[in-house]
Amino acid sequence: MHKLLPASLALALATPHCALAESPSDLATLRQEIATMRAAYEARLEALETRLKAAEAAAANSATVPGATAASAAAVVASAPPPPAPVASGGGANAFNPAISLILSGLYTSTSRDPEHFAISGFQLPTDAEVGPGTRGLSLAETELGISANIDPWWRGSTAIALHPDNEVSVEEAYVQTTSLGHGASLKAGRFFSGIGYLNPQHAHTWDFVDNPLAYQALLGTQYGDDGVQLTWLAPIDQYLELGAELGRGRSFPGTDTSRNGAGMVALTAHTGGDIGASHSWRAGLSVLRAKAKDQELDAMNTAGNSVTNAFSGRTRVWVADAVWKWAPNGNATRTSFKLQGEYLRSTRDGDLVYDVDNVASAADYRAVQSGWYLQGIYQFMPGWRVGLRTEQLDPGSSRFGANAAALDLGNYRPRKNTLMFDYNPSEFSRVRLQFARDRSREGVTDNQFFIQYQMSLGAHGAHGY
Amino acid sequence: MMIRNALIALLAAPLALLAGPADAALRVFACEPEWGALVQELGGNLVEVSVATGALQDPHQIQAKPSLIARARNADLVVCTGAELEIGWLPILLQQSGNAKVQPGQPGNFAAADYVRKLDVPGQLDRSQGDVHAAGNPHVQTDPRNIAQVATALGTRLQQVDPAHAAEYARRQADFAQRWQQAIARWSAQAAPLKGAPVVSQHKAFTYLYDWLGLKEVAVLEPKPGVEPTASHLQGVLSALKGTPVRMVIHAAYQDPRASEWLNTNAGVPAVKLPFTVGGSEGAKDLFGLFDDTVARLLAAGGKR
Ligand SMILES: [Zn+2]
């Protein structure tokens, strides 16, 4: 029950300031405002008089310059540009239309192993987990429709709707966010990608590779999004320091959506960053996510080598350490630039596991500590052309299955993968990418994965995060 | 309980810090060096100016990096070009700053391009024409007459956001206006021999400068705004220029000079690097130096003939 308190506190704070503004002590403020207005008008009159004098002086001056030069100079001075045209109105009922953007993306995939049998050895993942290279051949990749606008002076709203290749539609993000809290604070409510780590809040079309790293796939279900509230606060100091707190229902892996009044997810984030000279900038952070799961169905392999379905109930805590460093000569990334980023994820699952739900259904204590990391570098060697390299590895860690220890063992194989990416961006709005990966996610199996991808953005020019 | 206490602490800390000294300088965040320099002229020691970008950076392609977010967080006034020049980075900077004072529509948000007449306003909005700016060409600072108009509006805005020092801003504004008008008259007289001179630009960055001095832009090296010149496009420009001799090819300090140098080598057209903004050259130390140097460089390359 007490978990609702922070949320209601945050909502109370989000109430627009106008409710507080009309207190009786504001008379003095009003008086001061009138005085200010008077001062401003007097100052403007004074400025106009000065300009008039200056123009007269200038005209007199140019008269002393000999011959034709003087004439043309006077002409140039005289032809001061006319005042700006009023801001375009018109548009009628459509004038308040929000910014709309559409991302179109397509993919050709070739793999040496059938993606149907993709798995990450040593990691029990949900039956519907979005892992691996997807489908072979030509396919439409995710199409994303983004709509955003200010709602009123206090809120803005944004949504991202994903149209999947299998004709399904899903709401990736749909949230409202305060614009007027001030004091460095901002509150978001609705559905959004969690602010943990570096890659997690980023939309797929801004990734530097076709797919998200294995550590994100195995420990966060590719990307953690939830329904809830998020409060961020930026410290009032010259150093960038942003703290964030999130409460959510725990809708997706590593949590599960169940009927409960409280929060199924809590996350805390801290990020800091800055510049080193004119050419370097960086950001680093530490986040933790805690999610509850109940009867979460997991695909697993038992010690006999058979596929089984287990069910996990308990808590998962995922720590994410992230760092990114960017270089561009004099801060101008038009011609060449370099970006190095890496993240380390560590997950602890505590609770109980029902082994082989459909047949044996034997429940026992369960604890697993697993981790993974990736490191990637992206080098833009000339305008529009980039090359990238990513290396990554997972550690199945240690796990305790209690009474089921004889039937289950995650082994000690470390899944790993190396990826080479090459892309061409004819403009800010279009991209064609080639990617080759040597994937060793499955013990004893090497999968050579080859992708050709295009990503095109239509409509509103979205601003990009760091 | 723990979370609630943490939240209260999180919210109380900034409030405590806000109750600091009342007479501190007005903190101004300027997107480009020219507006930083103008704020300094109009605000003197009443303002503390932080400039987001340098003269060697392409103002279209800045990133919303942590240091900029931190500076936007603490600003009382944000002074930018507007007209969508900063569309790829400023909106996210302002969103992440959590600073209510500087959001669009607030007195703390000032867009210079709102106060001048804009040129190159596209009749048709279509990205097949390259990275066109819907509101018109945003590089308004290359015409000193625009600077004068922006200075008037900015002076008024400074008085509005810092009313305690309104009289001082008014005095500084009047003083600047007088010196600036005299300087414009001087530059206009000096640059008179350039009137009508045909020139080539690398990017459509100098529309306002040409409008002021009467230069004629006969070709642009970028095939479309924001698109790098290709070898074949350069060849096309070269053959088009065979019949029409031009006096110079102009690029901004932040741009890669290779395309201009190519034209210089292959057609003997003098290549001129203009500072484009304050800090873009040795001479462009402030706004006056920016135009002193711009006019001098233009005259040196194409004053005769
Ligand atoms: Zn431009």
TrEMBL record, chain A:
Residues 31-65 form a coiled coil. Residues 1-21 form the signal peptide. Keywords: Coiled coil, Signal. The keyword Iron-sulfur does not apply. It comes from the Bacteria. InterPro entries: Porin_dom_sf (IPR023614). Transmembrane segments: none annotated. This is Zinc-regulated TonB-dependent outer membrane receptor.
